[in-house]
Amino acid sequence: NLKKKKRKLKFELYLLMxxxxxxxxLAFKTIKDTSIFQIKNVEISGVDxxxxxIFIENLKKYAFRPxxxxxxxxxxxxSWNENxxxxxxxxxxxxxxxxxxxxxxxxxxxxxxxxxxSWCFLRGxxxxxCFWVSSEDGILTGEAPETFGGLYMGVIENSSRIGFLGxxxxxxxxxxxxxxxxxxLNLIGIIPKSAEYKKIGDSLNIENKNNTKFLFSLSFxxxxxxxxxxxILQKSSQSEIEYVDLSVEGKIYVKPK
Length: 257
Prior knowledge:
31% of the residues lie in helices and 31% in strands. By secondary structure, the protein is α/β, with parallel strands linked by helices. The N and C termini lie far apart (84 Å). The model has no long low-confidence stretch (mean pLDDT 82).
């Protein structure tokens, strides 16, 4: 039976090629109406079962050939662009599409982005809209709770900007500087109680559980200043310091309590 099906499929494809060469309009109509080109199954890996429907609906915005789609419809296997690789949207950093013509199946592989933490936007006096942030590029990927300390960073943005899915919170270099700050503070043993970002001046103000404040600027690489901070904390306890100003490259000001 399997051999007969393969022979039948090869014959139909060969016949279609002959029709296409002789009469293109008839060939397109045949592709549209023939059941062998209608998608029977969609196999998806890397996506939670509860999210597959939403995932496919979002993917349709990127994966169709627009001109072919208009004529053949979205359920035709030729409407999907197999050659598109590394499609990116929201929480997925890589999406690849393959076709199995014999099984009339779309095979979709998805790889999720890692979360670095949450980013919150002020809405009114006390309300906040919070989103997960992708660790690769700083894009907002989904609604999130406020998170501070532990495995995730948490930042509150003090500005009039409104957050939305797909927004890139920072320019790439500034985002790398942000990641360095949180990673190094974690290694030093500083656990943030709060972190506030001000878009004007690109300042990041972090406060730990001892109410010690650490003032940073995201406009330059913080590596040198963080190395100096590490040496300072080898001599002084965090609880003895009111704040450390690291917002100027190559300079640090420490105010004791």
